[in-house]
Amino acid sequence: MVTRELLFIAALLFLSRGSGGADGAAETPAVGVMGRRSLQPPAASRSFSRRKRDEETPSYLKWVTFEGKLPDDAVSNWNNYAKRMEYVCSTSVLGCDTGAYVPDRGPFCFFPYGEQEESTRNFKVLVNVGNFEALDWVDDSFGSVPENAVAGCPFFDTFVGRNRYGLGKISKEQRAAFVVVDGEEVWYKWYQVLVVKKGLADVTISHVRYNMSRAVEGREDVTLMKTTVRNEGCQRVWKAVTLEEVTETEHNWGIDRRVFATVHGVLQAALLTFSGTGWDVTNVTNIPWVGGASTSKYVVHIRVVEEELQPWTTCTVALEGRRLDIRVPFTAQLTRDFGDGQPHRVAMTGWARSQVVVGVRAGIKECRPIDDVPPCWV
User: Fold this and answer.
1) Which among 235, 239, 254, 345 could disulfide-bond with 292, CB atoms 3.0 to 4.6 Å apart, if both were Cys?
2) Are 357 and 219 in contact, with CB atoms under 8 Å apart?
3) Closest C-alpha among 88, 77, 59, 73 to residue 131
4) Which residue ranges in the chain fall short of pLDDT 50?
5) What pLDDT is stored for residue 262 in this prediction?
């Protein structure tokens, strides 16, 4: 009998110390409510002590001050219990708290605090710029959080959490998650934590689709080079002039959003080439991407002009062509592959531009007499 009592007491101590696995958030049990006996229930949530951490939130994941409307790329969570979309918010009015901004409920961040739901107009919204960062909800329990969990404030051990009742906060100090349920603060030992994936990743921009219906074309006549040819005699003569010049066929790609200016990777895209009557899409090729991509090819143009020149005449010979330019919007897919079999994909838009010189030709442009020449005697 004594042995059974000792085993029972040991089991209670083990649970109260926070051991145990993580249940799925959708089935998280409410501990300490509805007649259940709590395992060393924490006091009502409060401001938590500061603790300096080595790393801050990644550069593409930012807390943005709320200024009256929902910012682009705000991190969202569908609350199936309340049947509404919520957005992750944080506030420092009572220390450090995270909760939910719900547009239909007004310009407030709602968060659990002191056994009830609190709200404030002074808050920030979590933004994943361009949806570039790979975010995930990871199961955890008893105040623990995985590596790279998203913190609510700098230097606080308060993290973004949720369960089936919606968004809330996780306190390492109080070893629990706190969520508002029907207007009251409820604490839970099992929950999910918002985590951002870090580490080296191969970046590929692929599935490029050009919208040729919105292409903008331009053209202009250009002079590639000029030279002169002279006849300083009294008889007509034939002159042959060779003109040679190099032009560059250019292809450039850029992204509409400047936030991706530091992205390095590989672009897999087809080139836009002029076929003689219009622009065509060629085979896909790989091009280095450093905030954008470019590739070019040099073309040598050689033309020979033969012309009979009048006596004492100078003529200008020119190599000319037509420069064509096209700018086309495109859609693509940016993929970050961390090597774990779970690549992160982001839709993106941008523009492609190509330039080429066509119709290169050479000819006499103008001739004029040479001044101050001696007379020709027949």
Assistant:
1) 254
2) no
3) 73
4) 1-40, 47-58
5) 83
Q: Which helix (H) or strand (E) holds 240?
A: strand 237-255
Rg (CA), the chain: 35
Q: What are phi and psi of 121, to 5 degrees?
A: -85, -15
Q: How far apart (Å, rounded) are the C-alpha atoms in residues 352 and 292?
A: 10
- Given a contact cutoff of 8 angstroms between Cβ atoms, the answer to whether 159 and 152 are in contact is yes
DSSP 291-337: SSEEEEEEEEEEEEEEEEEPTTEEEEEEEEEEEEEEEEEEEEEEEEE
Q: How many CB atoms lie within 10 A of CB 361?
A: 14
The set of residues, in sequence order, having a beta carbon less than 8 Å from that of 220 and lying 6+ positions away, is 322, 323
Provide the 8-state DSSP code for 54: S
Position 142 scores a pLDDT of: 95
Distance CA 46, CA 250 (A): 61
Single-letter code of the amino acid located at 135: L
C-beta pairs of 263-267 under 8 Å, 24+ apart in sequence: 263/132, 263/203, 263/289, 263/290, 263/291, 263/334, 264/203, 264/289, 264/290, 264/291, 265/202, 265/203, 265/204, 265/205, 265/289, 265/334, 266/202, 266/203, 266/204, 266/205, 267/205, 267/206, 267/208, 267/293
- Given the DSSP bridges, would you call strands 190-196 and 135-141 parallel, antiparallel or unpaired? antiparallel
Tell me how far apart the alpha carbons of residues 161 and 179 are, in angstroms, rounded to a whole number: 8
Residue type, 186: V
Distance CA 251, CA 352 (A): 7
Residue 197 contacts residue 63 (beta carbons within 8 Å): no
Residue with the two structure tokens 């409060």: 46
Structure confidence at residue 42 (pLDDT): 56
Between the CA atoms of 69, 71, 75 and 78, what dihedral angle is there, to the nearest 10 degrees?
30
Q: Nearest-CA neighbor of 301 among 235, 365, 244?
A: 244
Phi-psi region of 207 (alpha: psi -120 to 50; beta: other; left: phi over 0): left
| Cα–Cα dist 185/302, whole Å | 81
Tokens of 329: 């919007």
pLDDT of residue 35: 27
